[in-house]
Specification:
Elements: H1 2-23, H2 30-37, H3 41-47, H4 51-75, H5 80-95, H6 98-110, H7 113-136, H8 142-164, H9 178-189
Helix pairs in contact: 1-2, 1-4, 1-6, 2-3, 4-5, 4-6, 4-7, 5-7, 5-8, 5-9, 7-8, 8-9
Length: 194
């Protein structure tokens, strides 16, 4: 019985991922989850009490996996500068995933503070890797620099989203990777070479 519940819960989370990928946060509804899994709508409530509970479960499962992807990308690099570049590019690639964007949008609105704190803790592990890379580069204030680097990443994410949404102001006309290239250049070389 417990195994059946785990399988049903996993099926609901898979359905939620598909719905988020296909239609964004508006698509994640209990009737849609029920239709995707073949369960009665009332049965969905046996597993999750709200849409926020579904998103929290997705975050608990997916965020460590996403963090592990970025961590692995950083670990595969030889130099501290390459690890920082892998961090920036990994974050931007992840932010470009429609499912990730939808989960982040919903989590900002619907998750309680305890759930947000767990997400921040997962992200904090990544920041620790950036701090180490900055220390390896000999940076005098690696924690401050890591926080500022995260600001660059967040600004690049917003810029990429605006460009993808058709807003042309400030968008590079080059390939979609131009925002990532600019963010990496700014992170590694400052404003004089960005």
């Amino acid at each position: 019985m417990a195994e059946h519940r785990q399988l049903q819960r996993a099926a609901l989370l898979d359905a939620a991922r598909i719905l988020l990928t296909e239609g964004g946060m508006e698509a994640l509804t209990f009737p849609s989850l029920a239709a995707r899994t073949g369960l009665a709508r009332s049965s969905v409530y046996e597993y999750f009490r709200s849409r926020a509970a579904v998103v929290e479960a997705l975050c608990e499962v997916d965020f460590p996996l996403w963090a592990a992807e970025i961590e692995a990308g950083m670990a595969s690099r030889d130099t501290a500068a390459e690890r920082i570049e892998a961090y920036v590019r990994g974050q931007l690639a992840l932010a470009g995933d429609p499912r990730h964007r939808a989960v982040m949008a919903i989590s900002a609105l619907e998750l309680d503070e305890a759930a947000r704190e767990r997400i921040r803790a997962t992200h904090g592990r990544l920041i620790g890797l950036v701090v180490q890379a900055l220390e390896d580069l000999g940076h005098e204030q690696p924690r401050l620099a890591a926080a500022l680097l995260q600001g660059i990443v967040e600004a690049a994410v917003r810029q990429a989203e605006q460009c993808a949404g058709g807003e042309r102001t400030g968008c590079p006309v080059e390939a979609p990777g131009a925002v990532a290239d600019a963010a990496v250049a700014l992170a590694l070389h400052g404003l004089d070479r960005a």
